[in-house]
Amino acid sequence: MTWASGIDQKTGRPLEKPDIRYDRTGKRAELLPGALGAHSWQAMAFNPKTALVYIPLRKFRCRMHRSRTMRRRRSVWNVGTATTNLPNVRGYLVAWDPVQQKEAWRANYLGPWNGGILTSAGNLVVQGNAAGDLSAYRADSGQKLWSMFAQGPVMAPPITYEVNGEQYIAVLSGWGGAYPLLQGQTADKSGNERNVSRLLYSSWAQRLSCRPCRQNRSW
User: Pick from 171, 176, 174: which is nearest to 197 by CA?
Assistant: First the structure.
């Protein structure tokens, strides 16, 4: 984090570093996390057995300054801020120990915009990413157990359920959220996959199948 040095224990507010208020100083400020934050709406998860929190995390650095050319317009976003996204934007699945306040393990992704997370009592963590992969990891160690290519981004969090004593996993595939809309070609760094929105589901003992595409052997 570049824009704060800690948290004020009385107020709960960040302790801002000098000169980050670019609207007051008139100078550019480099912020990490950037305006989109280190974590967004994608679901995180907690596993009581491992006592770990699993977070879709992103490293998104940006340079911001007050725009001197903006003219207020009705019905559009008027923030008066010019933003430049800096290189080395990355995304991660991070397993965090909230007691020890340290990272237990992580999985690296191509870009910052990836899916929500499911963790189960069977020591699993399941997450999709913007490159079109749906993967399962050991919740305690981060070892990758299984992965499949969904032919499109998987942003939604998976769910798990039981039918006649058999466990299933289901997830919606497809792009979602503001990042691919606002960032344009920058979003391609997360995977640059076409949008194929549909429901994927599987018995955990079988490979995933696509409800509309069961006859396609590639699934």
Answer: 174
